[in-house]
Amino acid sequence: MSKPKVKVAFFDFASCEGCQIELTNLGDTVFLGLLEHIEIVEFREVMKETTSQRIDIAFIEGSFTREADRPRLESIRARANVVVAYGSCAATGGINALKNHQTDYREFVYGKDAEMPHLDSFQAQPISAAIQVDLAIPGCPIDQAEFARIVSDVLHGKAPTVPNYPVCVECKLRETVCRYQSGDHCLGLVARAGCGAPCPADGVPCEACRGMVDSPNQPALLQVLMEKGGLSQLRAETKSRLWTARFRNEE
Ligand code: SF4
Ligand code: SF4
Ligand code: SF4
């Protein structure tokens, strides 16, 4: 008798949904291969069905930005065996957390409509601020190969891991010339690896879209950005928190 397929669902909160879209770009070979082992029961980018049943793996995209989302997050947690924070918005607050450092963002974006009730939100937080999360896959968007590896690990009962070393390691492994050699700047020194360092290989600096490694040496990063990358202190500070902004009161 064949094994029952693993039930997988995708849910989105405050996000651009780019991480879900990225999955639809996996390509027939990988995607159809995955479908031999998993059954997708909710994924609004590609299907209209939803589920209120138990789920084996729930991939949650987007940040926790309003109290109104807590019951839905808790419902997903209660129904799922494994909850994965899917993409940087869900894993760390992601680029949404930039608003945590501004006070007038609603007026700036929405003008006279800024007071509309559905725009009422608090500081952007990772979903782990609301519910227990078993694993976080960072990336803006997620890396397809890393996603496929992590799903494979879960299906085989292996504990999936995400690297805790900097992008520089992967950059060196693919023999990319360092951006600093071209008078550029780069955050790869402290950015969390796992993406394969595609940005420096394409001639652009790493912006740490996957967040930073645990315990990054941020003073040293700022020093390098200023002394070697030629950035002003203000630009070095704002650049270094583009995808890694946390809470205003942490500064
Ligand atoms: S992590 Fe990036 S690509 Fe993914 S949902 Fe958030 S903003 Fe979009
Ligand atoms: S280009 Fe960036 S990621 Fe690559 S080695 Fe230099 S600092 Fe590190
Ligand atoms: S190289 Fe940096 S910016 Fe590019 S995908 Fe990797 S972590 Fe993100």
List the helices and strands and how they pair.
Blueprint: E1 6-12, H1 18-24, H2 28-35, E2 38-42, E3 55-61, H3 70-79, E4 80-86, H4 88-92, H5 105-110, E5 135-137, H6 144-155, H7 167-173, H8 198-201, H9 218-227, H10 233-240
Parallel strand pairs: 1-2, 1-3, 3-4, 4-5
Please give a structural write-up.
- This protein has 251 residues and is an alpha/beta fold.
- The chain folds into 2 domains: 6-155, Rossmann fold (3-Layer(aba) Sandwich), CATH 3.40.50.700; 167-250, no CATH class.
- It is 31% helix and 12% strand.
- The protein is built from 10 helices and 5 strands.
- The chain has helices spanning 18-24, 28-35, 70-79, 88-92, 105-110, 144-155, 167-173, 198-201, 218-227, 233-240; strands at 6-12, 38-42, 55-61, 80-86, 135-137.
- A 5-stranded parallel beta sheet has the order 2-1-3-4-5.
- Strand 3 (55-61), helix 3 and strand 4 form a beta-alpha-beta unit.
- Helix 9 (218-227) packs across helix 10.
- It is globular and about 60 Å long.
- The termini are far apart.
- It binds iron/sulfur cluster (3 copies).
- One iron/sulfur cluster (SF4) binds next to helix 1 and helix 4.
Encode the helix/strand succession as letters.
EHHEEHEHHEHHHHH
Number of helices: 10
Give the proportion of residues in helices: 25-40%
Distance between the termini: 57 Å
CATH class of the largest domain: Alpha Beta
Mean pLDDT: 91
The total number of structural domains is 2
**At the third CATH level, what is the topology name of the largest domain?**
Rossmann fold
How many strands in all? 5
Query: Strand content of the residues, in percent?
Result: 5-15%
Query: Any idea what the CATH architecture of the largest domain is?
Result: 3-Layer(aba) Sandwich
* Bound ligands, named by name, code or SMILES: iron/sulfur cluster
CATH superfamily of the largest domain: NADH:ubiquinone oxidoreductase-like, 20kDa subunit
Q: Sheet bearing the most strands, described?
A: 5 strands, parallel
Largest sheet, spatial ordering of strands: 2-1-3-4-5
| Uncertain segments | none
Q: Structural class of the helix and strand makeup?
A: alpha/beta
Q: What does the radius of gyration come to? A: 19 Å
